[in-house]
Write a structure and sequence with these properties.
Blueprint (H helix, E strand, L loop, with lengths): L1 H44 L3 H20 L9 E2 L11 E9 L3 E10 H4 L1 E10 L9 H17 L13 E7 L3 E5 L2 E4 L16 H11 L4 E7 L1 H12 L3 E7 L3 E8 L15 E5 L14 H8 L8 H6 L1 H19 L23 E6 L7
Parallel strand pairs: 2-5, 5-8
Antiparallel strand pairs: 1-11, 2-3, 3-4, 6-7, 9-10, 9-12, 10-11
């Protein structure tokens, strides 16, 4: 009897051990499949120096073509009408509106020249409701103007507007615009999830000024710049050697200072400075040398603008979370990464948002220009 009980105990232990071994084997196989997916992805994403040089050369060709003619390149290489940048001597009260994507920011700053620099500044961020990104231009700009009016109404006594002057607004608009002057420009196309088709080809400054009037606010837009140009101006305010600005955020773009005589499509007289800030709109860059994976291709095919903004879809915050989701979903389907059941939220497009930080930075070239 005692012997039978002992044999039974041994059998139970053996069975438990066998089950544990099988579970470990299943786990090992599962993680091996996960590793295989990641290894395959890594191979397809690899970008050694030689490949990066090919990408660089391809972008250089597109840059030159974009400077030569309006429709000669995937890169718009937009003339910004900004031929001089801040010196640090500026004084007075300034307002700014930055519409960069799914959020916008309004700011006021009191500048005190070389000695005092920024005396005081305040800003507030506002999220744009999803439905306003595809409705009408009136609804979008009325929403923005209402937030601006509320912000101006909160202006304290620490801010001083010179007597007899009207509040002026610098408008940073982070979408492709064909500028016709320093304070006007027509929308070329929407990016970053916006889709208000009636706005394409219209003057966005005129739209905003009309919305400001509807709010009863005494203010006008005096300057229109792209966010990359604004970043370049901010860099120049701090360091006079700043020549290039790059943004990696919801989208991505770059701006730099170009010699006026290196812009064949510029037919007006050269500015006094001899230079012109160029807004590259490099989010639309595309090259056979870019390491596109099946995840990138599927994301592009299912996007609102297939075939466009490829560089932006490879690098910017709006799309990084979605690429990560697609990779995790494949690992869940092929390697049971999360067990036998796939989490339902993992099948929801864009459930992971903005996995990379917003980066606005300047590149110091020490008075060197692109050759």
């Amino acid at each position: 009897m005692r012997k039978a009980a002992a044999l039974a105990a041994v059998a139970v232990v053996a069975a438990a051990a066998a089950i544990a071994v099988r579970q470990r084997l299943r786990e090992a196989k599962r993680w091996a499949r996960v590793a295989a997916v990641l290894s395959d992805l890594q191979e397809r994403c690899v970008a050694p120096a030689a490949r990066l040089l090919q990408v660089s050369d391809a972008m250089d060709v597109e840059m030159r073509a974009g400077l030569a003619s309006e429709d000669g390149s995937k890169l718009k290489m937009l003339v910004t009408y900004v031929d001089s940048l801040p010196s640090g001597d500026e004084k007075g009260l300034f307002y700014a509106l930055d519409l960069g994507g799914t959020n916008f920011r309004v700011l006021r700053v009191q500048l005190g020249g070389k000695e005092q620099r920024v005396i005081k500044q305040e800003s507030v961020g506002v999220s744009i409701p999803q439905h306003l990104m595809s409705r009408s231009s009136h609804e979008l700009f009325d929403f923005i103007a209402a937030a601006l009016a509320k912000f101006v109404a909160s202006e304290g006594e620490d801010y001083h507007l010179p007597e007899g002057t009207q509040r002026e607004l610098g408008f940073t608009f982070s979408f492709p615009v064909k500028q016709t002057s320093i304070s006007s420009g027509t929308l070329i196309k929407w990016t970053k999830g916006f889709a208000i088709e009636e706005m394409v080809g219209k003057d966005i400054v005129a739209e905003l000024n009309e919305a400001i009037k509807r709010q009863g606010l005494v203010m006008k837009v005096s300057t229109l710049v792209n966010d990359t140009v604004g970043t370049l101006a901010a860099g120049r305010y701090v360091d006079n050697d700043t020549m290039v600005a790059v943004i990696l955020g919801t989208g991505t773009n770059a701006a730099y200072i170009e010699h006026g005589d290196a812009i064949p499509k510029w037919h007006a007289p050269l500015p006094k400075s001899g230079d012109m800030v160029i807004n590259m709109e490099w989010g639309n860059f595309k090259s056979a040398h870019l390491p596109l994976t099946e995840f990138d291709q599927a994301l592009d095919a299912e996007s609102l603008n297939p075939g466009e903004q490829i560089y932006e879809k490879l690098t910017s915050g709006m799309y990084m979370g979605e690429i990560v989701r697609r990779i995790l979903l494949q690992m869940a389907q092929e390697a049971a990464l999360f067990g036998d059941n796939i989490p339902p939220k993992l099948e929801t497009p864009y459930i992971l948002k903005y996995v990379v930080p917003v980066i606005h930075y300047f590149i110091m070239q020490k008075k060197k220009y692109f050759s």
